Amino acid sequence: MADTPAGRQREVTVTDVARLAGVGKATAARALGEYGHVSEEKRELVLAAAERLGYRPNELARSMNTGRTRTLGVIVGDIENSYFGNATRGITDVARRAGYDVILLNTDENVTVEIEAVRVLTEKRVDAMIVSPASAYAVDHLQHLVDTNYPLVLLDRTIAGLPAPAAVIDIVPAAEEATARLIALGHRRIAFLSALTTDGMTFHGLPLGVSSVAERISGMLAALEAAGIRPDHDLLRFGAVDRASTDRILGELLQRDAPPTALVASDSTVVRDVLAALKSRGLRVPADISLVSFDDTGWEEFTDPPLTVVSQPVHANGEDAARMALRILGVDVLGTGDSAGHGDRLTAHLVERSSLGPPAS
Amino acid sequence: MADTPAGRQREVTVTDVARLAGVGKATAARALGEYGHVSEEKRELVLAAAERLGYRPNELARSMNTGRTRTLGVIVGDIENSYFGNATRGITDVARRAGYDVILLNTDENVTVEIEAVRVLTEKRVDAMIVSPASAYAVDHLQHLVDTNYPLVLLDRTIAGLPAPAAVIDIVPAAEEATARLIALGHRRIAFLSALTTDGMTFHGLPLGVSSVAERISGMLAALEAAGIRPDHDLLRFGAVDRASTDRILGELLQRDAPPTALVASDSTVVRDVLAALKSRGLRVPADISLVSFDDTGWEEFTDPPLTVVSQPVHANGEDAARMALRILGVDVLGTGDSAGHGDRLTAHLVERSSLGPPAS
């Protein structure tokens, strides 16, 4: 009984099928698993018995013959972040058109969970994995997929030295443009807040963990350099994972001798927490401080004030990720707007609303 | 070659392992599948060969012995809707503490896709399924799970006549309270907008498809009745699935001889589209029209004006769903705040902000 879920009928086994068919268990297993030699007569007996008993075919054994489960596995960093919901929708839309199902796992941006997720998807024998890696350094599990030729596509983030295709959006020019706009308004001290936890791993102010965040910063630094402004790495802040931490970080920034006059939020979740922190301090945007965010989830245009954002084609990027995975599998991908196949990397663009103004003092 | 994914190394098979171990294939299969008799000596030879070749254990065969894959399958209506992202996070948090992985599939609120999703999860042998059913009527696939004692928990929605536990939030009292507040301000014509597509299936104004939407309406009707206001079923509108359809519906409502003076949006996605439709028509909230929404995703307090909402404990409800599923499986669920076990149904509550005012005219 310990092996049987409470109240659940016992699973029909190969032994049950063999008994009803009047054949040996090995014969039944071969017939059901479609391997080895079974006489046509016995095969039919086994299949008839299996149907009568409601034996659930062993999908795994079957897939080892066809080589396919027609399932894509997707591993995302944070399912509560609109970015991943939207990208997953893009993946699913393309996969469904190709007759593929999509299975999703969430890592909470935790590498240990990601390693477990890869294990689960390997055991569930998905045909390919689409992964937004939580770390660019703890990547042995992804390297192992590459080494064993397990189809892998990276989502949103690249990993240096890992030869896997990546569906990523070029965000650097738009990040640079947004920063240049702030500089043109007179801002010199522009802070950046990200949920990324770097554990102190930065290099020249660039977080070493996640390429998509590094690219945001890279664009900001390029704009500062072009304007001859020396970047202040103390204005780059990480670990804004919730309201409390974001509020704490904002408090630290505002207590500096030279506080920032503008804030750049790394994603839609961060900017929501930044809005809360500003509101609780009675700070107005843009009169007291300017604010730019990445992503455009549909809410940013209705906030008070409407937010200037770097908008990303997230759904299209998800579609590209699915196309890349299916292409590795040799699946013909029908449908319109295939950007990934033409070497045209998707690009983000600046959407100007009302959250930028001149520095307060 | 047709059976091998392009560029992918051939899978290590039982035959390969048997050859290296110097045993028969049936013996290797028994040792690897942990069934039948194998001498200890041969078993060790097989396992050593399997390890050396990197043979991936057949999770399915293994699970047929333990009866468990330690995986929960979750089927949600719309992964882009914050509700489901948040609920899924709750499910995952509890599952992870119990050592269970969570696999997620999205149906786009499409029953055909839901049927396929149940098939996929059955084949992946998840131990239990948590499903937000897209329909309360096309439920044969869910009835089949119940009939075969496959552990099933419904999420967010109940199905009359289907004896499966449901993790649902009691939203009726808060919906009634929100409507009573509107009535107290002087509103008599209060419209309701939902993304639900009813295909005309309503009964006394109640959509027959989804219980959580029916409960919203039920609360509204109770408040109207208590105030002696005869409900106008033409003010209940469905199919607000995107900006265009929501804009069209709002246009129809506003062109009525007696247009609504207040709007109730069924969820956070709908209210975003309502805000867009109001903005494009130059209508101000609450001066021109009052607005209430269900859910509180974190953005509603920062819109212009901040929105009055019926807030639901979505994360806690996801946690409850996971606890119910694990309890069916006989898994001890540690952790705090177990509401589901005590018959205390989670309840929604009204959060008053600034989107309600007296009727315009």
Automatic annotation (TrEMBL), chains A, B:
InterPro entries: HTH_LacI (IPR000843), Lambda_DNA-bd_dom_sf (IPR010982), Peripla_BP/Lac1_sug-bd_dom (IPR001761), Peripla_BP_I (IPR028082). Residues 12-66 form the HTH lacI-type domain. Keywords: DNA-binding, Repressor, Transcription, Transcription regulation. PANTHER family: HTH-TYPE TRANSCRIPTIONAL REPRESSOR PURR-RELATED, LACI-RELATED TRANSCRIPTIONAL REPRESSOR. PROSITE patterns: HTH_LACI_1, HTH_LACI_2. This is LacI family transcriptional regulator. It comes from the Bacteria. GO terms for molecular function: DNA-binding transcription factor activity; transcription cis-regulatory region binding. Gene3D superfamilies: 3.40.50.2300, lambda repressor-like DNA-binding domains. The keyword DNA-binding applies. CDD domains: HTH_LacI, PBP1_LacI_sugar_binding-like.
